[in-house]
Design a protein that fits this description.
By secondary structure, the protein is an alpha/beta fold. The protein contains 18 helices and 15 strands. The strands form four sheets. Strands 8-10-9-13-15-14 form a six-stranded mixed β-sheet, sandwiched between helices. β5 and β6 form a beta hairpin. It is globular, with a radius of gyration of 28 Å.
């Protein structure tokens, strides 16, 4: 007997789970099940098979169990266009009962296929968040925005919450060939798909995108292969800025030569900064009330609590609002921070600023500092390569953190990475075990743990970067709400 299971939609994971549980408990093999989602419309063989209810479980059947990782991958895999995806999930469900560690075998054909489906869906979601271009429409009740997008997979329902969060105050619609999403400012609804003709022209908006793209285009960093991987050609037809790409590429070499012939003023060298500091130290400093941030900052300039001061350019103290409710503690200053004397201004700082903005946190209203105040590095030619601070250096610098937080008295402190956790709690701990949790420090009060932004920069896979970046933003939103509450 063939069991035909009609699911409610292309991505009906809940319906699959209910039916799959009953079928597995009745020991029905995958070859006797036909999962129907509507993608087989018009198939006479499918129509001829009756929709049979799954039988009752076999006597003495053990409860089913699957690894958490499988459920996470299944949520993505059901969005894939492969018509055999539900069969694959069911086959794996059965195999897990006798092979509980199967999900860890990356070379297994079924596991490899599942991981590939999930990766393709993650990539498609990332492209949707990157390449949706809204066009403004004037309506009787005010402006609205409409966008057209052509996804490869069934990702609309899974991805549009990103736009709800990002554009909560706008009324917008995203139209795709299979499914359309509409946000009226209060509720999200889904409608049948449409066509590109349903999206009106918006020359003013398109010109704005073209102006923006032309201004951020850097000819000195042009890598055509990398650009096409990040912005595949198949998306160009729906991007207003794509009309500029060919001309920008052609003119890139000339612009790069002009940049070389007319260089910008170089930043001051480390030796010049040290000379300026020596002059500043020789001049009388204004006196500050003991225990204030100003007094601590002055005192920290001559810190010699650990040997790191010998090679670093200068102490990099915290920076931000003295009455901040939120304090962010990172690891240590990097090369650019060491030269400038300011925390979080390098590549990790730029990513941090972007994530703060997406999480609705104003950096000017927060306070940012590091667990270790001097740059630890190892020279490699003319470069200075970041080196992780040791426990002794973290513990030696903890005095500064305690003094800073004592002056600030924040409602919540956010530990960015393992070094910050060690500094704030006095104990080493795994970030994976604590991430997203608010723990209590006997010295400084509540601490929320998350990753350091540099962790995101080190991830080799762009899909993984996107996922982890979204998790990081979610952690920051949690910190925002915890401080506000």
């Amino acid at each position: 007997m063939i069991y035909r299971i009609d699911l409610d939609s292309h991505v009906d994971l809940d319906g699959w789970r209910v039916a799959a549980r009953r079928l597995a408990e009745a020991d029905i093999p995958p070859s006797e099940i036909l999962w129907r989602t509507g993608e087989q419309d018009g198939d006479l063989f499918v129509e001829a098979i009756q929709n049979n209810e799954p039988p009752e479980p076999s006597p003495g059947h053990k409860p089913l169990s699957v690894p958490r990782r499988f459920l996470e991958l299944a949520e993505l895999a059901v969005c894939h266009r492969d018509p055999e995806r539900f069969t694959l999930l069911y086959r794996l469900l059965l195999r897990f009962q006798s092979e509980p560690r199967l999900i860890d075998i990356a070379t297994d054909d079924d596991v490899f296929r599942l991981e590939g489906m999930a990766k393709a869906v993650r990539r498609d979601r990332h492209k949707m968040t990157a390449f949706v271009r809204f066009k403004k429409v004037e309506a009787a009740d005010g402006p609205a925005y409409v966008a057209w997008f052509e996804p490869e997979h069934h990702i609309v329902a899974l991805t549009v919450p990103f736009f709800v969060d990002r554009f909560a105050n706008m009324r917008w619609s995203i139209i795709t060939p299979q499914l359309s999403a509409r946000w009226d400012g209060l509720a999200l609804t889904f409608e049948p798909g449409g066509s590109k003709a349903d999206v009106p022209d918006d020359e003013a908006g398109d010109d704005l995108w073209r102006t923006y793209y032309a201004n951020i285009f850097n000819p000195a960093r042009l890598k055509i292969g990398a650009m096409k991987r990040e912005m595949p050609v198949k998306y160009w037809k729906n991007l207003p800025e794509s009309s500029l790409i060919t001309s920008l590429i052609r003119s890139a070499q000339g612009k790069e030569n002009a940049m070389v012939e007319n260089p910008q003023v170089a930043p001051p060298k480390r030796a010049e900064i040290i000379a300026q500091q020596r002059v500043a130290k020789a001049e009388p400093r204004p006196s500050h009330e003991a225990g204030t941030l100003e007094a601590l900052r002055d005192e920290a300039r001559s810190c010699q609590r650990c040997p790191l001061y010998r090679d670093a350019t200068q102490t990099v103290f915290g920076e931000g609002l003295a009455s901040a409710d939120l304090v962010f503690v990172g690891e240590q200053p990097g090369d650019r921070e060491d030269l400038a004397g300011k925390p979080f201004i390098g590549p990790a700082g730029a990513l941090f600023d972007r994530a703060l903005a997406e999480a609705g946190i104003d950096r000017q209203r927060a306070y940012v500092t590091n667990a270790v105040k001097h740059f630890k590095f190892e020279p490699r030619g003319k470069r200075r390569i970041h080196k992780k601070p040791g426990i002794a250096e973290i513990d030696a610098c903890r005095w500064w953190i305690e003094q800073e937080l004592g002056a600030l008295k924040p409602k919540l402190t956010v530990a960015l990475g393992a070094t910050a956790v060690r500094s704030l709690t006095g104990k080493s701990a795994s970030i994976l075990s604590l991430r997203g949790q608010v723990i209590d420090s006997p010295l400084i009060g509540p601490v929320l743990v998350t990753v350091h932004p540099s962790f995101l920069l080190r991830l080799p896979d762009e899909d993984q970067q996107r996922v982890e970046y979204d998790r990081f933003v979610a952690d920051l939103r949690l910190a925002r709400d915890a401080a506000a509450g």
